[in-house]
């Protein structure tokens, strides 16, 4: 559940760039967080069901990288995002690279998944120790590559 100040969605709309599709929600939420802040209570109120037919599983590496680039570009065009999240930009870049790495690992492309995981580590060493980083390592070490 989330609450926003009245009119926030009139001031901050979803980005209409279709090349961003699949990441427009992240880009919107980072702008909203920069302008209004976030308060959380750490209760889990939703669940993502992972299955092999999810549309994000078989997305091309180039498409994932383009979405990452656009999401960061659009978000950081906002002065409030620059001010609030500028000090964390390397961590954000690492976050997106682990996102790419995870999807490549789930699709069985271990070599490219490892490459992007190492790129993430260059931006923020801690990224390998996140839940996502550990899941990537699990896929790289224990899962058989797709044929």
Give an overview in words:
The longest helix is centred in the middle third of the chain and has 18 residues, at 89-106. The protein has one domain (8-142). The mean pLDDT is 89. With 147 residues, the protein is an all-alpha fold. The protein contains 7 helices and no strands.
Please, how many domains? 1
- In one word, what is the shape? globular
Oligomer: single chain
Q: N-to-C terminal Cα separation, in Å?
A: 41 Å
Order of helices and strands: HHHHHHH
Strand content: under 5%
Q: Give unreliable regions as ranges.
A: none
What is the fold's blueprint, element by element?
Layout: H1 8-11, H2 24-36, H3 61-76, H4 79-85, H5 89-106, H6 110-123, H7 131-142
Question: Can I get a quick summary?
Answer:
With 147 residues, this protein is mainly α. The chain is 57% helix and 0% strand.
Structural features:
147 residues; mainly alpha; 7 helices; 57% helix
């Amino acid at each position: 559940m989330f609450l926003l100040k009245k009119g926030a969605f009139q001031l901050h709309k979803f980005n209409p760039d279709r090349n961003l599709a699949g990441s427009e929600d992240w880009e919107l939420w980072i702008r909203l967080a920069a302008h209004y802040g976030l308060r959380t209570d750490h209760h889990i109120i939703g669940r993502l069901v992972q299955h092999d037919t999810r549309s994000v599983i078989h997305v091309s590496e180039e498409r994932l990288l383009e979405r990452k680039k656009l999401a960061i570009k659009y978000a950081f065009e906002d002065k409030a995002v620059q001010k609030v999240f500028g000090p964390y930009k390397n961590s954000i870049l690492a976050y997106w690279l682990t996102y790419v790495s995870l999807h490549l690992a789930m699709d069985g492309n271990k070599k490219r998944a490892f490459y992007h995981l190492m790129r993430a580590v260059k931006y923020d060493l801690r990224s390998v120790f996140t839940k996502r980083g550990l899941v990537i390592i699990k896929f790289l070490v224990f899962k058989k590559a797709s044929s």
